[in-house]
Amino acid sequence: DVVMTQSPLSLPVTLGQPASISCTSTQSLVHSDGNTYLNWFQQRPGQSPRRLIYKVSNRDSGVPDRFSGSGSGTDFTLKISRVEAEDVGVYYCMQGTHWPPITFGQGTRLEIK
Amino acid sequence: EVQLVESGGGLVQPGGSLRLSCAASGFTFSNYWMHWVRQAPGKGLVWVSRINSDGSSTSYADSVKGRFTISRDNAKNTLYLQMNSLRAEDTAVYYCARQSSAAPDYWGQGTLVTVSS
Fold first, then answer.
1. H/E element, B35
2. Who among A54, A90, A101 is closest to B103 (CB)?
3. pLDDT tens readout for residues A4-44
């Protein structure tokens, strides 16, 4: 199984400042079809997960443009350009290239400093 | 508006069974693959199972293989998860999720399954 490793696991950020979360996979996430199926999810306290980014860098509908995804191969990053209070929660990366099983990272808890 | 509403969770003894349901609306259910993902209390997300759009192909996590069965009724716009031989470690919130661009996009609110004597 592909193991997804996120860092940091805890991320205190000052409002208005940028934030960055790293996600590394144990295998390249480039699929034989040429796509890279790396996704990012946000889970606010008490809520269901919400997908933010699919295929590395594509924002889902309604996702603010302060969220961006980048990376290739085995190394990926989620960036928030200016953190807002509503961004508090846990962020997960997820690979859908080598499955079953789909695998998630451990989660990164973003809090306001 | 896409809506996924899970039901069927509850308290069950070890070794018991439960069937979860997920009622879908706001999209053409029969066109989409669907997933079950679970989250133990205070823990991260763990994929459980997925089914293709017509129900002819299924996959499972090793931890539930042989005990859980995913199915769907496209006429009723409903996804199911039959859970047998339940263990304490199956205690979690179970989410159903629609697949789009090869990953879950919309998620339900979840239903809590507690396995305890």
1. strand B34-39
2. A54
3. 999 999 999 999 999 999 999 999 999 999 999 999 999 99
